Amino acid sequence: xxxxxxxxxxxxxxxxxxxxxxxxxxxxxxxxxxxxxxxxxxxxxxxxxxxxxxxxxxxxxxxxxxxxxxxxxxxxxxxxxxxxxxxxxxxxxxxxxxxxxxxxxxxxxxxxxxxxxxxxxxxxxxxxxxxxxxxxxxxxxxxxxxxxxxxxxxxxxxxxxxxxxxxxxxxxxxxxxxxxxxxxxxxxxxxxxxxxxxxxxxxxxxxxxxxxxxxxxxxxxxxxxxxxxxxxxxxxxxxxxxxxxxxxxxxxxxxxxxxxxxxxxxxxxxxxxxxxxxxxxxxxxxxxxxxxxxxxxxxxxxxxxxxxxxxxxxxxxxxxxxxxxxxxxxxxxxxxxx
Length: 338
Hints:
Helix content is 29%, strand content 26%. The chain is an alpha+beta fold. The protein has helices at 10-23, 38-54, 56-69, 73-81, 171-181, 185-194, 258-272, 278-285, and strands spanning 2-8, 93-99, 102-112, 120-126, 134-138, 146-149, 154-160, 200-206, 212-217, 222-226, 232-236, 301-310, 315-319, 328-330. It has eight helices and 14 strands. The strands form two sheets. Strands 1-4-5-6-7-8-9-10 form an eight-stranded mixed β-sheet, with helices on one face. Strands 11-2-3-12-13-14 form a six-stranded antiparallel β-sheet, covered by helices on one side. The radius of gyration is 18 Å and the shape is globular.
């Protein structure tokens, strides 16, 4: 994974990123692993008003990237707005567990092996009061797929194949907006409920007060489940699993063994949730208790990073590769907490 540290307002951060790539003879449009077809171009037009209303800062950052790259902004918008809804997304696993030892959020990012060198571990420090500072990981440069902000709010997504798409924010953009705007899971739940969703996905969210929720979202329906007061857990893979949302599943032929990953987490946490700590959370993600990340790399699939977030301390432990053979190391970033 590449590690980047940004500081400034959204536009200047984007321009710095785009300029640096160009200086190294890299064009972002050449790195996009799908065709920017007419469907994506039309999708921009429907989504732009939603972004202008709810997340104008990200539009400024994308414009900054385009200016730094010296390219038109429309192709970047076409690539980013349609992520997770107009293309197969990352196939990931998430959980949050709360017990007497603390509250821990874990996530594996499963994706195509040829993207590994493009995966980013990025910290954002805003100087213009435009949003909360955060540390995030992504396969999609601007959008985030898991992360933690300066108030200790941690969040992770899994993509879900959509049964329809509409004007709205995709799950990666929504995750980043939550990192920048929310201090607690209650604030996150309120924001998520107010914003139109472009496609489907899940979000597992925890905060510094050991509160946690699972959000299963689609264009027409959103379901939110909370951790119990007692020892408890919530889990997600790239499919809906809660009773009210199963009807919205449109599973692709290849689910990257989503059902098996879900069962591994469910069976282990059902029996051992009370014993989970940082180490056991890492072992669960590494496949020590059943299939999680043991992909055949010759098929072009693998777990490209793994993270455990300790919600009590806001510490992040990240494996920069498949956690079965890449060690977890503590991330260091200039976090702040009021």
